[in-house]
Amino acid sequence: MLVYYASIIVYIFGYSLMALIKRGLKLSGNFLFISLFVVVFGGVSASRATTVGTDTGTYGAIFTSIGSSYGSQTILSSKYPLYELYNYLLYQISPNIQIITAANAIIIAIMIGKALSKLSISFFFSSLLYVVGYYYFQSMNIGRQFIAAALIMLGTAYLLEGRVKTFWLFEFLAVLIHSTALVGVLFFIVYIIHWSKKNIILFVTISLAFFSLLPKMMPLILKIFPSYALYDNESGALSLATQSNGGQTYVYLLYLIIMVIGTLLSNNYAKFRDQKFIFLSLIMGLTIILGIVFSKQVLISRLVLYFSLFVVIYIPMVMQSISEAFLQKPQEKLLVTSILNTAIIVIMLVPMTLQLTRNISGVVPYFVFWK
């Protein structure tokens, strides 16, 4: 478990160094920071043994199976054709199962890093929230779905820039990797609607009704998507990987407090009433409602992942809105925003530690693959 805390410390010091280098060389963009994120967190994830992560060994077995039996008929009948093709191509490079573990880890880190760079007002705090919010550890377990979630997140970043075709490309690729990515269509719906109070109430009501009926619709859903049987509470085919909710209700309550603060303050500051902030607020609201009300529904918990990832973007925006509300000088605003973000990181370390102690997602103890 210490390796994860050590990686956070290394990342913080490395980021400080990169910031100095960037300032000294007068560089623009977040390439250095994304690279550091990939090297530190992607590197730790890529170097883990197959025993680290509940389903890591399973992905290795799938990789071997695909690599040794893949053919034209396989892709036509596949439930996740792009992921199978990706596995097959990696197998041609090397049949060593470590290659799929490493490739998944690096691809996830690159896409999450790029999405954070495009979406967040603070890459540093968003990247740390990604780790302490336990998303990083989930990525070591449900790798295939996390690749799909990262594609949706990056696609949404382009959507908020008005690049609709690019979003649909990422959505299409995500569905070819994991069928739960179909939920990404909701991001487009949220994007295109003009949000009045009436529309917000209607959206929340319809969403609650739909997800409330979802368990009763499972027989029909399982006929259309047989692979969803893994997430059916009645199937008995559940594992630790599908029930990583340890202490999450308290985390969602923290998110609710943050969202209430952000909503109240946004009424008075125009810059926090823009499309991006409204979009993220709605996604946050959906995340909190589904996370609290349906915490014991496995399929819905899996779907919530696509929404809850955006928490790491939303929180720094709210912390900035607090400083904007009460301070005038830019330096004071920056200092207070940093203090508030740091406080949230420290608070989030508590549930992270609790989940690591309970070995949620099976990431403890950590071993490197060469030992």
| Distance separating the two termini | 17 Å
Gyration radius (Cα, Å) is 20 Å
Fraction of helical residues: over 70%
Mean pLDDT: 86
Number of strands: 0
Could you list the spans in which at least 5 consecutive residues all have pLDDT below 50?
Answer: 234-246
- Specify the overall morphology: globular
Secondary structure tally, helices: 18
Decide which structural class fits the backbone.
mainly alpha
Beta-strand content bin: under 5%
| Assembly status | single chain
Name the helix and strand elements from N-terminus to C-terminus, one letter apiece. Answer: HHHHHHHHHHHHHHHHHH
Q: What composes the largest sheet? A: none
Question: Quick recap of the structure?
Answer:
With 371 residues, this protein is mainly α. It is built from 18 helices and no strands.
Structure description:
It is globular, with a radius of gyration of 20 Å. Helix content is 72%, strand content 0%. It contains 18 helices and no strands. The model is unreliable at 234-246 (pLDDT under 50). The chain is mainly alpha-helical and 371 residues long. α14 (248-266) crosses α17.
Give the helices and strands, then pairings.
Blueprint: H1 2-25, H2 31-46, H3 56-69, H4 72-77, H5 81-93, H6 98-119, H7 123-132, H8 135-139, H9 143-159, H10 164-177, H11 185-192, H12 197-213, H13 218-224, H14 248-266, H15 275-293, H16 298-308, H17 311-326, H18 330-357
Throw out a few tags for this protein.
mainly alpha; 72% helix; 371 residues; 0% strand
